[in-house]
Design a protein that fits this description.
This protein folds into 3 domains: about 90 residues, Rossmann fold (3-Layer(aba) Sandwich), CATH 3.40.50; about 60 residues, ATP-grasp fold, A domain (Dna Ligase, domain 1, 2-Layer Sandwich); about 100 residues, 2-Layer Sandwich (D-amino Acid Aminotransferase, Chain A, domain 1), CATH 3.30.470.20. The relative contact order is 0.16. The strands form 4 sheets. Strands 14-13-12-15-16 form a 5-stranded antiparallel sheet, sandwiched between helices. Strands 2-1-6-7 form a 4-stranded parallel sheet, with helices on both faces. The radius of gyration is 20 Å and the shape is globular. The two termini are about 25 Å apart. Helix 2 packs antiparallel against helix 3. It contains 9 helices and 16 strands. The longest helix has 14 residues. It is an alpha+beta fold. It binds adenosine-5'-diphosphate.
Length: about 300
């Protein structure tokens, strides 16, 4: 098969591993930087050009689109979908997953457990919003944040009010969320491929920190998932329309709660923690499922 990997940097661990795994399994694979792709979007025969070369003859595309290039990256992916390539994750699903509120609304509608979350634009009574999520302590998150940046634990009602006032003063979008204390500074990353969780790890925050992000000094270890956690992760990915997803779960008193569904989950942490060939499993999924024009939406969404 001819497989295209969309990635800004061929040296990144995840990109390298996917390329290696595809070649090891006998495929013709290459990396293209989505920002260097250009296209005539009005042609009835959609094409994509890359450094003066027309990209043709590919069967499947693996999008590794960073949050900062979502807009252009999904446009290029949509063009590939219109050309009939099989996308590992489709553009519409990636777009959905990049909007935290939209994602949570979709997951809630599907009946998945989520931490109680409030969102507001401009309200007169901040206390009412805080009460809506059960009062302090609560977590306040910037919508644009990644890797734990802009995620604040407010221990008291007063602290929560101050943070909300500060974020509002900056004209930033944020949400207020119930603090799941019993998670003990740990969350679980479930790596979903197709209808299965193929690997999972627990991330534990360092002493004195509630955010378990590995970039913030969290440590990863193996974890045995309950059947409920497995089915929650698979349902979350399916609800978002993602074939491959990193579903982050908190263990709460009321069972697993979905924190986030990531459409370009990194491979380094999960392969290192579990010793599994996740990249190989992703290529295996493409081998089984890639057929021309197999996109659910073909970019119409
Ligand atoms: P980001 O997407 O920036 O990583 P998250 O929403 O995943 O932000 O939050 C970062 C970390 O903070 C999570 O991995 C989790 O460990 C912790 N955390 C986030 N929200 C809550 C919450 N409501 N209750 C308890 N811990 C939380």
């Amino acid at each position: 098969m001819k497989i295209l990997i969309m990635s800004r940097n061929a040296k990144l661990y995840s990109t390298r591993r996917l390329l290696e795994a595809a070649r090891a399994r006998g495929h013709d694979a290459r990396v293209v930087d989505p920002l260097k792709c250009y296209m005539n979007i009005t042609s009835s025969h959609p094409t994509v050009s890359y450094k003066q070369e027309l990209l043709t003859g590919f069967d499947a595309v693996i999008p590794r689109i960073g949050a900062s290039v979502t807009f252009y990256g999904t446009a290029v992916l949509r063009q590939f979908e219109m050309m009939g390539l099989f996308p590992l994750n489709e553009s519409v699903a990636i777009g959905r997953s990049r909007d935290k509120l939209r994602s949570m609304q979709l997951l809630a509608r599907a009946g998945l457990g989520l931490p109680v979350t409030g969102f507001a634009h401009s309200i007169d009574n901040t206390n009412d919003l805080i009460d809506m999520v059960g009062g302090a302590p609560c977590v306040i998150k910037l919508l644009e944040g990644t890797q734990g940046v802009g995620v604040v634990l407010a221990e008291t009602q007063k602290a929560a009010e101050s943070v909300i006032d500060a974020f509002r003063g900056l004209d930033a979008n944020f949400l207020v969320q119930e603090f799941i204390k019993e998670a003990g500074g740990a969350d679980i990353r479930c790596f979903v491929v197709g209808e299965r969780v193929v690997a999972a790890m627990m991330r534990q925050a360092k002493e004195g920190e509630f955010r378990s992000n590995l970039h913030r000094g969290g440590t990863a270890s193996l974890v045995k998932l309950t059947p409920e956690e497995r089915s929650t992760a698979v349902r979350a990915a399916r609800t978002m329309g993602l074939n491959v997803a990193g579903v982050d779960i908190l263990r709460s008193r009321h069972g697993p709660l979905v924190l986030e569904v990531n459409s370009s989950p990194g491979l380094e942490g999960i392969e290192t923690a579990t010793g599994k060939d996740v990249a190989g499993m992703i290529i295996g999924f493409i081998e089984k499922n890639a057929k021309p024009n197999r996109t659910r939406t073909r970019g119409k969404g």
